[in-house]
Amino acid sequence: MGMSLTAIWTIGGIIGALILAWALFKIGGKVRDKAEASKVIKMSLYKSRSGKSGKGKADKKTCSFCKKKSARLAFYASETGQVIGVCDACRPQAERRALNRL
Hints:
Blueprint: H1 5-37, E1 61-62, E2 69-70, E3 74-77, E4 83-86, H2 91-96, E5 100-101
Antiparallel strand pairs: 1-2, 3-4, 3-5
């Protein structure tokens, strides 16, 4: 036999350490991906709130531009990335500002 038992164990240990390092790298990547994915909110997990208010009327929300209450808002992303709700009267103003519709 050309190799001693110590050399075989050393080579086996190096190969085992490389496999362990590769496995830890893969597991670390999956954990990192799950942490990034957890920042996204899945809306399918939440119940719809339409028509579930106490008196049967839809809740009125405040327009981000004119601050008036409106039952129906269109949602846009502002220049800073913030979500804003816009009533029907202010919708042309949002489109002039070239806001992205959500």
